[in-house]
Task: inverse folding
């Protein structure tokens, strides 16, 4: 793409290798003028409070200061307008259902190929929802927006 299409994304994961890989290996991330990272829920909230103009948060549910539902609700309740794509090592249907029940716009597992992560980010940025195809099939949910 010729230049940034979106102003800002925040990547929230306590492993720098994960945020570095997302930043550099996922083509959709090149569409952002700024990409910031946080390793805790508190740090992510501080970044969003300082500058609420954010088009995407990519969120790991398991952080040093918060786990699972608490992590997602911690962001969703304070920043309801920001789209959240959960990026988690938990591939269980229960975790996926919980994420959507708590307001996530998408869910991608950490064992997904980069092209799937790219597709999920683009779907969420377009105003849609992304659910792993196998989870959608198992749940009888329509895939996409």
Result:
């Amino acid at each position: 793409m010729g230049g940034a299409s979106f102003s800002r994304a925040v990547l929230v994961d306590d492993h720098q290798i994960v945020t570095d890989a997302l930043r550099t290996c996922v083509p959709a991330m090149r569409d952002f003028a700024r990409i910031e990272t946080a390793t805790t829920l508190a740090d992510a909230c501080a970044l969003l409070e300082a500058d609420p103009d954010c088009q995407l948060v990519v969120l790991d549910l398991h952080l040093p200061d918060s786990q699972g539902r608490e992590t997602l609700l911690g962001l969703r309740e304070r920043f309801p307008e920001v789209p959240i794509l959960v990026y988690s090592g938990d591939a269980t249907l229960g975790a996926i259902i919980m994420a959507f029940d708590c307001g996530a716009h998408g869910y991608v597992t950490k064992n997904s190929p980069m092209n799937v992560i790219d597709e999920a980010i683009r779907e969420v940025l377009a105003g849609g929802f992304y659910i792993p195809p196998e989870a959608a099939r198992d749940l009888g949910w329509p895939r996409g927006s």
